[in-house]
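Example 9 (inverse folding). The structure is encoded as follows.
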């Protein structure tokens, strides 16, 4: 039986979302604007159709031409959001039919009754920041005061999220997680998508750095996802990185929590051979987003793409006959754009199987087409949303 490997290059948009203007993102283009600033060398993704997908999305292929060995397309998001949860859920066959709750740009950004409830229930001396902020900058700005006062740092962004940062040692990791669990419970009525624990280390400004012990407390998906359908059918599911958190640990199978793109890659490779027949391995490569998209570093983003591309043959060579590999993204995060938030873009979809007939499956009207295609390839009943494209495999 076939298997599937779904790799999410977190935030790797390719511009062109028709509703980008309503998000303030008209003209954003993660791939295109990186290529405007460096000669991006990603021949393996190009051979899977990345440049051609970019041309389909925006009319411009910014990569050097190479022979096509895979299939490619472009996916357009139907859910009203440009955040991690919304993108991942739609990829897995669950587009959102509702809008998330968001926090305003006022200071404090959070309702006073929410602040008071978190402080009281968690026996805290207070909370710091209470605003829209960059995660790295807010730690620089408030890290020393946090250590001195034991007040956690609470902030948000354009996403439906409440992030709480605290020092792993001075405050305590488990105590931070408990504060986030309380905040998760309190924000359900507000329809907030995620509470994120952001632990950090360091003793003074200029030394603070976030650690790999981030933990997301997400809302449960409102309908069965691809992962849930596979788990219910007794199939093997392996979730690498933050996949388990994103899907609220529903149907996510064997969860392997590691930090950093090199660890995501090595963990993916180490578990490919052991994935059961008819199973799915799903990995989120988050560093594109957190380390370079939000920090508005196009050169760093481009170099990380090149590093990923150089390792891609190690994944492809481990594919068995009829195994399906899909590379895609969950939203955009143009590292040249104003602000520090995600950008509303279309995403590339690149697929490969041994013996696949190269070609294009065109513009997909929903990210859910990805999950539906995997479901059909793995001989599952159809998911609740999405239209599968025709995956050919002459070698099968």
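The amino acid assigned to each position is listed next.
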């Amino acid at each position: 039986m076939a298997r599937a490997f779904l790799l999410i290059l977190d935030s790797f948009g390719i511009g062109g979302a028709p509703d980008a203007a309503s998000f303030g993102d008209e003209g954003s283009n993660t791939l295109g604007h990186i290529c405007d600033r460096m000669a991006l060398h990603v021949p393996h993704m190009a051979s899977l159709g990345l440049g051609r997908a970019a041309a389909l999305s925006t009319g411009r292929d910014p990569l050097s031409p190479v022979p096509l060995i895979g299939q490619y397309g472009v996916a357009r998001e139907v859910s009203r959001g440009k955040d991690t949860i919304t993108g991942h859920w739609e990829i897995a066959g669950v587009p959102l039919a509702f809008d998330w709750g968001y926090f305003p740009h006022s200071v404090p950004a959070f309702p006073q009754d929410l602040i008071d409830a978190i402080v009281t229930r968690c026996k805290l001396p207070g909370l710091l920041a209470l605003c829209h902020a960059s995660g790295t900058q807010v730690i620089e700005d408030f890290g020393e005061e946090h250590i001195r006062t034991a007040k956690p740092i609470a902030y948000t962004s354009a996403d439906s999220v409440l992030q709480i940062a605290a020092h792993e040692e001075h405050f305590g990791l488990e105590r931070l997680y408990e504060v986030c669990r309380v905040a998760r419970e309190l924000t359900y009525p507000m329809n907030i998508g995620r509470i994120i624990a952001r632990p950090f280390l360091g003793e003074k400004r200029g030394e603070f750095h976030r650690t790999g012990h981030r933990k997301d407390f997400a809302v449960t998906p409102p309908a069965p996802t691809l992962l849930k359908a596979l788990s219910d059918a007794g199939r093997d599911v392996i979730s690498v990185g933050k996949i388990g958190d994103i899907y609220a640990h529903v149907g996510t199978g064997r969860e392997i929590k590691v930090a950093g793109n090199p660890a995501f890659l090595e963990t993916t490779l180490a578990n490919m051979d052991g994935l059961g027949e008819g199973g799915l391995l799903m990995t989120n490569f988050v560093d594109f987003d957190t380390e370079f998209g939000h920090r508005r570093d196009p050169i760093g983003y481009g170099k990380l793409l090149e590093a990923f591309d150089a390792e891609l043959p190690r994944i492809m060579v481990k594919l068995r006959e009829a195994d399906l590999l899909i590379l895609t993204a969950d939203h955009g995060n143009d590292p040249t754009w104003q602000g520090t938030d995600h950008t509303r873009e279309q995403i590339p979809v690149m697929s490969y199987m041994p013996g696949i007939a190269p070609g294009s499956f065109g513009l997909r009207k929903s990210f859910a087409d990805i999950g539906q295609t995997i479901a059909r390839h793995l001989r599952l009943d159809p998911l609740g949303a999405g239209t599968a494209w025709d995956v050919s495999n002459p070698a099968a």
